Amino acid sequence: MAEVGKVTFELVSPQRLLVSQAVDMVVVPGTEGDFGVLAGHAPLISGVRTGVIDMYEGDAIAERIFVAGGFAEVTPERCIVLAEEAVPLADLDAEVIRARVRDAEEAIDDARDDAERAQPAADLEIARAMLEVAEAG
Length: 137
Fold this sequence. Notes:
Blueprint: E1 7-12, E2 17-23, E3 25-30, E4 33-37, E5 44-48, E6 51-57, E7 60-67, E8 70-74, E9 78-83, E10 86-88, H1 94-110, H2 114-136
Parallel strand pairs: 1-9
Antiparallel strand pairs: 1-2, 3-4, 3-6, 5-8, 6-7, 7-10, 8-9
Helix pairs in contact: 1-2
């Protein structure tokens, strides 16, 4: 249960539970725009677009996490994000991401048709967004 005035934030990726803690506010990159969640928020379900989740303690961002797609469910007490991919910004390595970009570009070049190009194209879009975030610091 969240502390008074806080909202429980949970972030789950296919690999693991990344976050489960009480925060003052969480800002999620929703498909219709960023939205902030405080304790007492109205119930909401939203798609999540590629971007960065900001977790707040007081007026300051305590942690930032890159997410690539998914869904968010908000209740007055809790915000749960089920992300297709999630990586704390502190763990992003620009060189590793550049290699991911190159691999996706090569897979696109090697694809014989649009069906084979679809997944590498999606991977490339995510990798480029991740690289932009990593290089911005």
